[in-house]
């Protein structure tokens, strides 16, 4: 590869390794961050949400801080290093006047929605958040609002639209994706006292009482965040439907991801796949298949470092001329395979996927089948090429009872299938989302203490990111978003 073809430039080492080649570049935004923040303040959905949170604490004199101001500034805090930086950057003279004018022009006949002329202080914003949005009840309402706005924007972005062949050939926009990442806590200690090794005296120290140690982060206390998202393939048009915050490494992140996916799935029945990493085990794959979703992930190696295999017995193949043929089928690292003997020896040949079928059972669950065929390869006898059979992918009751599930080695869409990179490629967006989140954190660690404050900060962050996805869609297409924003922003270069 020449220097011109290496779009990322050469690596600094002398090993001669070729740099990663980018196939595309992110389309630049036409709206500045101040324009985006102004439209967030003018989002009617945020005003309605803030009004729902306010009646939870009717005691005391009215606060000077507008609820929508506190919610928006909290959402911006995760990307700008905390509330102090956000207040200093977004409440100065001309910036605050710009926000006030934007909201006033958006709601000319509703003065109760206008922003106060005097910008709020950091203590006022923090007091509103710590009195209105800190308990489990209000955070549950907040998480539900995150899911509601994501489902609503999904219809705009074309995410979850069912198609006739979406079961056999799913695309990126009909699949849930997710991943887990570890967020380092504010403090390095998990207890309130320490011993001075020189004097033997106890000294008090600050710590996060909810954070637990994480061995992936050198044993520092922190939280594990698992999120559920979807993407339509366009720049900045990804949505987050739910997040799960767990101290340390309690429980399985794949279980948390699947719980969130199955909770949102009834509201988005057009979704067809769930994509996750190797933490998704056979029990999770069977659970997804029974719910009607195809699990997309790589097959893990065995404990001995070998390729996973599972024999599913004899299957009858129907040839093109109507003849019948029986062969033993074995799942090998994803696809079903058959063994063919020739003059050169025995060959394990993967079958070719023709079609996926999803059958609804009487109890409301689904069973996934696939029509697979002998490939047109030289090693396959001519009379067997193209012969098809029906293969079941859900584990049987006997397999579940014995703990040896066929989903340990079998996949509806295996890694070598042409449709696999179409859906599994969405995991790159989840990694980028984690990177963007951590870049905004000072020293890549959280700057809030307590699991409820961490949950509030992250929900606010993804809430504003979902609204930005609607703005990005409006920039690209010029579509109507007046039901989300009272005054849609101008379109500079709509396609």
Unreliable stretches: 1-23
Number of strands: 15
Whole-angstrom Rg: 27 Å
Order of helices and strands: HHHHHHHEEEEEEHEHEEEEEEEEHHHH
Largest sheet: 6 strands, mixed
Q: What overall geometry do the principal axes of the alpha carbons give? A: globular
Task: State the gist of this model.
This protein has 495 residues and is of the alpha+beta class.
How would you describe the overall organization of this protein?
- With 495 residues, the chain is an alpha+beta fold.
- Helices cover 33% and strands 20% of the residues.
- Strands 1, 4, 5, 6, 7 and 8 form a 6-stranded mixed sheet that branches. The chain has a 4-stranded antiparallel sheet with strand order 9-10-11-12, with no helix packed on it. It has a 3-stranded antiparallel sheet with strand order 13-14-15, covered by helices on one side.
- Helix 3 crosses helix 6.
- The radius of gyration is 27 Å and the shape is globular.
- It starts with 32 loop residues before the first helix and ends in an 18-residue tail after the last helix.
- The model is unreliable at 1-23 (pLDDT under 50).
Give the helices and strands, then pairings.
Elements: H1 33-41, H2 44-53, H3 67-80, H4 83-90, H5 93-106, H6 122-132, H7 136-157, E1 175-184, E2 193-195, E3 202-204, E4 212-214, E5 220-231, E6 238-247, H8 253-264, E7 273-275, H9 282-291, E8 294-296, E9 309-318, E10 324-332, E11 336-342, E12 345-350, E13 352-360, E14 366-373, E15 388-392, H10 397-402, H11 420-424, H12 427-439, H13 451-477
Parallel strand pairs: 1-7, 7-8
Antiparallel strand pairs: 1-5, 2-3, 4-5, 5-6, 9-10, 10-11, 11-12, 13-14, 14-15
Helix pairs in contact: 1-5, 2-3, 3-4, 3-6, 3-13, 7-13, 8-9
């Amino acid at each position: 590869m020449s220097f011109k073809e290496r779009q990322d430039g050469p690596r600094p080492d002398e090993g001669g390794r070729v740099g990663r080649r980018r196939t595309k570049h992110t389309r630049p935004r036409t709206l500045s961050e101040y324009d985006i923040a102004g439209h967030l303040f003018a989002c009617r959905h945020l005003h309605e949400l803030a009004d729902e949170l306010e009646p939870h604490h009717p005691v005391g004199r009215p606060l000077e801080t507008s609820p929508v101001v506190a919610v928006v500034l909290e959402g911006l805090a995760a990307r700008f290093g905390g509330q102090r930086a956000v207040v200093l950057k977004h409440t100065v003279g001309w910036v605050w006047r710009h926000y006030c004018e934007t909201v006033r022009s958006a709601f000319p006949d509703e003065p109760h929605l206008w922003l106060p002329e005097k910008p709020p202080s950091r203590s006022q914003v923090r007091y509103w958040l710590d009195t209105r949005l800190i308990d489990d009840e209000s955070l549950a309402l907040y998480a539900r609002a995150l899911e509601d706005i994501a489902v609503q924007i999904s219809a705009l972005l074309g995410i979850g639209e069912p198609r006739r062949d979406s079961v056999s050939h799913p695309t990126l926009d009909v699949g849930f994706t997710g991943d887990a990442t570890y967020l380092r806590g504010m403090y390095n200690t998990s207890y309130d006292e320490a011993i001075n090794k020189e004097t033997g005296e106890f000294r008090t120290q600050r710590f996060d009482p909810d954070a637990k140690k994480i061995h992936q982060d050198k044993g520092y206390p922190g939280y594990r965040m698992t999120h559920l998202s979807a993407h339509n393939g366009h720049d900045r048009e990804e949505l987050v439907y739910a997040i799960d915050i767990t101290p340390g490494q309690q429980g399985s992140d794949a279980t948390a991801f699947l719980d969130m996916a199955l909770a949102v799935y009834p509201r988005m029945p057009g979704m067809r796949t769930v994509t996750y990493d190797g933490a998704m085990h056979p029990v999770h794959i069977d659970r997804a298949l029974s719910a009607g979703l195809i699990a997309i992930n790589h097959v893990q190696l065995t404990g001995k470092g070998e390729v996973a295999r599972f024999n599913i017995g004899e299957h009858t193949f129907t040839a093109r001329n109507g003849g019948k043929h029986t062969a033993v089928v074995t799942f090998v690292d994803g696809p079903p395979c058959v063994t063919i003997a020739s003059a050169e020896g025995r060959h394990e040949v993967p079958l070719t996927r023709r079609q996926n079928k999803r059958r609804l059972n009487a109890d409301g669950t689904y069973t996934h089948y696939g029509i697979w065929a002998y490939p047109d390869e030289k090693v396959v006898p001519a009379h067997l090429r193209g012969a098809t059979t029906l293969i079941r992918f859900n584990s049987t009751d006997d397999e579940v009872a014995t703990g040896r599930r066929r989903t340990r080695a079998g996949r509806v869409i295996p890694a070598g299938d042409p449709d696999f990179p179409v859906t599994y490629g969405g995991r790159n967006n989840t990694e980028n989302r984690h990177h963007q989140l951590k870049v905004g954190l000072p020293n890549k660690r959280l700057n809030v203490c307590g699991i409820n404050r961490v949950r509030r900060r992250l929900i606010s962050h993804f809430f504003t990111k979902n609204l930005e996805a609607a703005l990005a869609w409006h920039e690209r297409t010029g579509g109507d978003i007046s039901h989300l924003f009272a005054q849609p922003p101008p379109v500079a270069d709509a396609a």
